[in-house]
């Protein structure tokens, strides 16, 4: 079984459009939406939800006003300024460390694990989709991503599915690290802008720290051929396998509006390019070593 | 006043709106704070000079093995598995640490000492036109961006006009950037993905109780899904920026739209005038309320 994670550094470069197309082109795969706080894959892939479960993240502290003697010990200890002068804990500022509850002399602070979101296992016409919805303003997105990927691995083992494709979040922080750790290969989807180039360099540095083979494609490449050229040069100089360019094409948005993947919806230039990129990606994945499970 | 530019979905144009808005305000107290510390881009457009940089660290524990009696109290209090007892040794995992100091407080032997982990840097500089930019840059491999975002925001002088460029998403980094803003300006893309993530951000802002307005980027002619949503939610649409290949090309080269396209400059000035009006009204209403 192999795992491919699609990332970008910069947001909005087309990760989900590319992933959705791969998910409808692959013969036997599981697709995971790891962009848990702004999940979009479910809007594109027709699906039926088979199972859902709660995601329990960290705990939060809550003061029982009747038991509280307002001694101020908790306010002094809290490193996150989460406790107001009238002893109310701001759940958004609360980091979930439990220090206040541990030391409270009156045992007036409850500290309980919170439901932070919901996880789903769905069936699409092209195979299972594992996705989630993180609660509004909740944290622990990295933990949720790790759990989704673990569930996907178990399902893959169970059903003998040889490939997991993961749609990653933007950035390089906690959920991205969770989405790329132990992947067999990464595909960076970037765009030919100075921001796209800058952000791609940072995400490549992350891939290098984790020692993961990396591919790259450039979306909307014709919007700035000169920067696209610079990105290609960077790929060549830094051991990134270049898998192709996708031209700017209105049908990408039209496909999204029709709730279909690009390759389902369109026979146009962008769809053709994504199909050819998928072939390249498959070939490259074939060259990475099979992990022992 | 602090205006935070956010979106939910990535790549809708947060940075484009932030930097062009900053460049179209004709005042000398405009400062920009790039809180997308994982992937900061504002400096590409603002081009600050004489940059000063400061490394930012957080406290992590270091155990004095001479004093440690392996009682395990630190392991018990730590919610983040950052300090554990393994085979008669206390091990720390600094990258998991949230700097709550629980281990330090609970240790009966005073064996937990202070060490530090580098989160990244905060940079600051001014461009030739006098726009002051402060931005955070998360160290590659570092997972926790909120404490660095908080450090960037600590440098805001609330007296002037502070424009905060928020990271994408709706979880901790975005929330950290949006907290205690006077106004949230959401950059929406009129696509199903854009609308879905916009609605998530609006819900988060209701929790944070921050007044919210929308600008539509890459708007097409047909009145669309964002307008419908905004009407239903009673949120004002402050401006529409039409889709233009020329604009996309200018941005891709790291240039400011307001310098290259006069029609864009007019749209940004209009946007600032409306923002200014809204914030002055709310300030006056607040003072009357007192």
TrEMBL record, chain A:
The keyword Cell membrane does not apply. The keyword Magnesium does not apply. GO terms for molecular function: iron-sulfur cluster binding; metal ion binding. Residues 59-84, 85-114 form the 4Fe-4S ferredoxin-type domain. Keywords: Iron, Iron-sulfur, Metal-binding. Pfam families: CbiA. InterPro entries: 4Fe4S_Fe-S-bd (IPR017896), 4Fe4S_Fe_S_CS (IPR017900), CobQ/CobB/MinD/ParA_Nub-bd_dom (IPR002586), P-loop_NTPase (IPR027417). SUPFAM superfamilies: 4Fe-4S ferredoxins, P-loop containing nucleoside triphosphate hydrolases. This is MinD superfamily P-loop ATPase, contains an inserted ferredoxin domain. It comes from Desulfocicer vacuolatum DSM 3385.
Automatic annotation (TrEMBL), chain B:
One of its GO terms (molecular function) is iron-sulfur cluster binding. Residues 59-88, 89-117 form the 4Fe-4S ferredoxin-type domain. SUPFAM superfamilies: 4Fe-4S ferredoxins, P-loop containing nucleoside triphosphate hydrolases. InterPro entries: 4Fe4S_Fe-S-bd (IPR017896), 4Fe4S_Fe_S_CS (IPR017900), CobQ/CobB/MinD/ParA_Nub-bd_dom (IPR002586), P-loop_NTPase (IPR027417). Signal peptide: none annotated. It comes from the Bacteria. This is MinD superfamily P-loop ATPase, contains an inserted ferredoxin domain. The lineage of its organism: Bacteria, Pseudomonadati, Thermodesulfobacteriota, Desulfobacteria, Desulfobacterales. Pfam families: CbiA, Fer4. Keywords: Iron, Iron-sulfur, Metal-binding. The keyword Protein transport does not apply.
